[in-house]
Write a structure and sequence with these properties.
alpha+beta; T-fold; 8-stranded antiparallel beta sheet; 3-stranded antiparallel beta sheet; 6 helices; 11 strands; globular
């Protein structure tokens, strides 16, 4: 099911220039410092997407189980870096490698763009790579929950770059075995954050399970924080602040 990404209309970043790169399932919303932007930056991002997709699709053609398995997967010889990164993250979280694909793409492209711009935010379907020299707020979209778009994770500059990724069993097309309105994970690796968000969200069936999602996230090496939301229940863990979202932020 396609879900229109209307939340992109509310991203208030006056110091950043934003643009979209879309190819097949990959749909990126990229922000760089105003002074670093040029049409060439968009072209570079497009080329990066093409290259990453070529590497991953070529690998999947010789190892089709990589795309379909819901369990950690042993790679064939010669797997490209993007596949190895996804498989490692998925192995840590105990899920299939495609659970890490959006975060991996966001991070690979974000780190390349950091060579051009000191400020980079790459959002890929709610999975974000973020690097900034100033505090940034990442609002939490949680479907029909009363917390949706009313709270944000405050990311201080000394914590970045990092990944902050979300999974949901009630919003969007991502596969989840849980019913979390939002399973949000923060990690130094966006690929790991993506895979861990799936794993933590899988254990949330009802409001009473939000703490189960947090406990699972705590056990995953490399995870720095988590926010779990189901209906009117919220659980938080990690050295990060949750702040209210003001109108226009």
């Amino acid at each position: 099911m396609y879900v229109d990404r209307v939340y992109r209309d509310y991203q208030g970043r006056q110091d950043l220039k934003s643009f979209r790169v879309s190819l097949k399932e990959t749909d990126l919303y990229i922000s760089v410092a105003n002074q670093s932007y040029s049409p060439d930056v968009e072209k570079k991002a497009e080329k990066l997407v093409l290259s990453l997709r070529y590497d991953l699709e070529s690998y999947i053609s010789m190892d089709p189980d990589f795309r379909t398995t819901l369990q950690p997967h042993a790679l064939a010889a010669g797997a490209p870096l993007i596949a190895r990164t996804m498989a490692e993250a998925a192995g840590t979280a105990g899920v299939g490698p495609m659970a890490a694909v959006a975060g991996a793409f966001a991070e690979f492209i974000g780190r390349e763009l950091l060579k051009i711009s000191p400020e980079v935010i790459v959002e890929n379907g709610g999975d974000i790579f973020i690097a900034s020299g100033q505090k940034r707020l990442v609002a939490v979209f949680a479907g029909t929950s009363l917390f949706s778009n009313r709270i944000a994770v405050e990311i201080p500059p000394e914590k970045m770059p990092l990944g902050i990724c979300a999974s949901s069993g009630t919003v969007g097309p991502s596969l989840s075995f849980g019913r979390a309105d939002a399973s949000v994970i923060i990690a130094k690796s966006a690929a790991l954050a993506d895979a861990a968000a799936t794993a933590a969200g899988n254990v949330v069936q009802g409001p009473e399970d939000v703490k189960k999602g947090i406990e699972l996230a705590k056990k995953l090496k490399g995870v720095l924080g988590a926010v779990m939301i189901k209906d009117d229940k919220l659980a938080v863990w990690g050295d990060f602040k949750l702040v209210p979202v003001a109108a226009g932020q």
